[in-house]
Amino acid sequence: xxxxxxxxxxxxxxxxxxxxxxxxxxPAMSDADSDWYTLQVCSPPGARVDNWFTAAxxxxxxxxxxxxxxxxxxxxDSALEPPADLVEAVRAAAARGARVASICTGAFVLxxxxxxxxxxxxxHWRHADTLAQRYRExxxxxxxxxxxxxxxxxxxxxxxxxxxxxxxxxxxxxxxVANQVARRLVAAPHREGxxxxxxxxxxxxxxxxxxxxxxxxxxxxxxxxxxxxxVARQARVSPRTLHRHFVNRTGSKPLDWLNxxxxxxxxxxxxxxxxxxxxxxxxxxFGTAHALRRHFRDTLQTTPDxxxxxxxxxxxGI
Length: 318
Fold this sequence. Notes:
By secondary structure, this protein is an alpha/beta fold. It has two domains: 4-198, 3-Layer(aba) Sandwich (Rossmann fold); 210-315, Orthogonal Bundle (Arc Repressor Mutant, subunit A), CATH 1.10.10.60. 45% of the residues lie in helices and 10% in strands. It has 14 helices and ten strands. Helix 6 (160-173) runs antiparallel to helix 7, helix 11 crosses helix 12 (277-283) and helix 11 (254-272) crosses helix 14 (304-311). It is globular and about 60 Å long. The model is unreliable at 199-208 (pLDDT under 50).
């Protein structure tokens, strides 16, 4: 599918999320393939871009409705409430048979339009829990850089939008053309790994209720071989009740949450200390370096050593 690509602007949309679609689908890349896209930047009158620029485009949401592919970048609204006219236009475009893709919190526009119900979807890791709690019918994947569900595609934040756009080129024009476009952008044609390796490893403050106090206690005892039964005793509830409370609060089972906290502690130690991998494994409760490496591989799609090289300040090269 090539044809017309409509890029949907909304008030205050971040400029970074606009850059990748404009660079990839715009006329600057038209010599990469004779059947290149026609890019239309669609905006309500006078919409501002990141509070820096005012959009000057002849295309409106009416043009978006009849496009072949619609790309929805991040929703700038701090409450993640997308504008109703954009939601309606995206819904109408999808009903016509358009392929619809979102970048970062643009997923909230697709969700409000009902396009993600029963599907897997990605968004920025900071907003994945909000998307999952607000739209229970969506299978939110907080790890993937992007997800292709055929006629609906979603990506994580910022540079993951570049990954998604290159993926669309690869689908439409083949790997050779996608690689050519990536070279011009000095970008990887296909990036390995998950966005979880980029997520903030430092947990926020616990909620100060009984479950929050239990979660804080767990964080203080991560180096110990905790079990779900021990945590339930600390919370003065049964394991079954603990399970229910954890799923309602975090969306995760207690053991999954515990392993996530251990992994975050390991990330923190790798970023801020020179402790050997074996000591990191012990201090965060995984016990052995082998277990730590297995959790890094399964969850972050990387290794502790590679993570340290990437994120420890005195080991980051220029």
